[in-house]
Design goal:
By secondary structure, this protein is an all-alpha fold. The chain has helices at residues 2-26, 31-54, 59-84, 94-113. It starts with a helix and ends with a helix.
Length: 114
């Protein structure tokens, strides 16, 4: 189950990279791509939490789950920032995107190291 969680979380990471590239090149986002990113990240977190509750775990996996949860909260903040603006096509603040990305990347690296 942990391998499935890592695979889905890696997919979420790749979709996030695609969102960043799209935003940097065209200065706008893609709602379908953002939804796929969010759903794969939430599904991956669900699989990770299920794996943590049913399989023997270590501290790295627990820390990765915590970091991934924080990245998810950061993603919700980014979504709230996007929804409060008048136009969805404007890019969110780069520092918020960078923090969200760093948390997700660290979480995935911790899972791969465990």
């Amino acid at each position: 189950m942990m391998a499935s969680a890592i695979g889905v979380l890696a997919l979420a990471l790749l979709l996030g990279v695609a969102l960043v590239v799209l935003a940097l090149r065209r200065r706008r986002g893609s709602l379908p791509l953002a939804l796929a990113h969010a759903l794969s990240a939430a599904g991956g977190l669900g699989l990770l939490l299920y794996a943590l509750s049913t399989e023997p775990t270590n501290k790295l996996q627990n820390l990765a789950a915590l970091l991934w949860g924080l990245a998810l909260l950061g993603g919700l903040v980014l979504l709230a920032l996007r929804l409060t603006r008048r136009e969805f096509r404007t890019a969110p603040p780069l520092i918020a995107v960078a923090l969200h990305a760093v948390l997700g990347i660290l979480a995935l690296l911790l899972l791969l190291a465990s």
